[in-house]
Design a protein that fits this description.
Number of helices: 1
CATH architecture: Beta Barrel
Radius of gyration: 19 Å
CATH class: Mainly Beta
Number of strands: 10
Strand order of the largest sheet: 1-2-3-6-7-8-9-10
Helix content: under 10%
Strand content: over 45%
Amino acid sequence: MRKVVLIFLALAGLALPALAGSYPLGVGVHGGYDYPVIQGDVGAGTMWGLSVRGNVVGPLHAQLLVRGTSQGDVEEDIDFPNEPTLTIPGGTLTGFGLNVLIGAKNPVNFWPYGLLGVSSNSLAPGASYKEDESLVGWSIGGGFGINLYQKKVYLDLNTSALVMPFHDDKASRKNWQTLLGVQYFIPIKTKSN
């Protein structure tokens, strides 16, 4: 049900600008790095992301984001003879979310923004004795775009903290995520002049 609500909010956020007459719709491909904070049951790993972004009103932009992370393996010391360490496989963390970006309404050469987001996340541990988890996450961070070509193609860099509460909000998983990618902005006109 959470995913249905997120999809509805994201589509509504991206459709609202159609009422304004014209807006750029950004499509992005990203790669990056995910670093678990505090928890030691998984290691850092690479991640990917796909996004769609549109201006809602004034400085507010909606961004629909799908991302996945291959979490790193962890070595644990054990007290068995001739077995100094045990390798615990990292597994995967995937998510689907909606970010609100706060930045200039229209593309500019250097385009900084703040980021607030909510996401539905699935954690699939690499170890068979651990159960899969579905967690709602909250993100806060920022980034910037650099114009590469005619204010249509941008180099985009963002970084954010992802917090996913569990155990009735008495604990949380925390990840620091950084993505670098390319955004292509498609000018869309919805009304004739």
